Amino acid sequence: MAIANYFYNSTIRKYVALFGTYFNQLEVRRTSTDGTLNQRQIVPISYGPYQKILARLDQDPNIEGGASFDADGNPSAGQPYAMTLPRMAFELTSFTYDAERTVAPTRKIRKTAVDEANGGRRFVYSGTPYNMGFSLYIMAKYNEDAVKCLEQILPFFNPEFTSTVRLIDGLEPMDIPLILTDVTSEDLYEEAFTTRRSIL
């Protein structure tokens, strides 16, 4: 078989890590009416579908989000507390072959270092172009928090944001564009008034 030789460059893993790194320092600040800063929070981000986080929010109907806290801001022992919002999640959703970026498969890419373990080859052949689709979810209890996160993201995409990344050791870094294709909003507030509201 032509692909019998094992290789793994962890490129997909690096793409996933790169995507998450773009959004891992978003901050939400809440101020009082006189402009005094009351709260400052880094919005946590995790890998996984948003349904998983929504299920975690809804799994215990007895959690009201009103747990008591000690002097250091930690929840008191034995008191249940709800997951804090806002938070973000992202997931890899698709792979699509990109025929427009296809080049001849025999095109050689020069390596920056000689690989002695592989017979001293000074080149590799060109890769196969795929577009990877990601979805980023912002979940918030208040619309203002969701908008604060969104306004820190949108200005950087016109419609793309490009980073230079070294994906494979020994090869030159390459430009990776991250293209924003769609933004949607959903207010998950369809049940009783006692249930928690989630803006997605």
CATH homologous superfamily caption:
Myoviridae tail sheath stabiliser
- Provide the structure class: alpha+beta
CATH class: Alpha Beta
The neighbouring-strand order within the major sheet is 3-4-7
Number of helices: 3
Gyration radius, in Å: 23 Å
> How many domains is the backbone divided into?
1
Annotation, overall tally of beta strands: 11
Largest sheet: 3 strands, mixed
Order of helices and strands: HEEEHEEEEHEEEE
Low-confidence stretches: 61-68
Output the CATH topology.
STM4215-like
Terminal Cα span: 47 Å
What's the multimeric state? single chain
CATH architecture: 2-Layer Sandwich
Rough shape? elongated
Percent strand: 25-35%
Q: What is the helix fraction of residues, given as a range? A: 10-25%
Structure description:
The chain has about 200 residues and is of the alpha+beta class. The protein has one domain: STM4215-like (2-Layer Sandwich), CATH 3.30.2000. About 15% of the residues lie in helices and about 30% in strands. It is built from 3 helices and 11 strands. The protein has helices at about 10-20, 50-60, 145-155, and strands spanning about 25-30, 35-40, 45, 85-95, 110-115, 120-125, 130-140, 160-165, 175-180, 185-190, 200. It has a 3-stranded mixed β-sheet with strand order 3-4-7. Strands 1-2 form a two-stranded antiparallel sheet. It has a two-stranded antiparallel sheet with strand order 5-6. The protein is elongated and about 65 Å long.
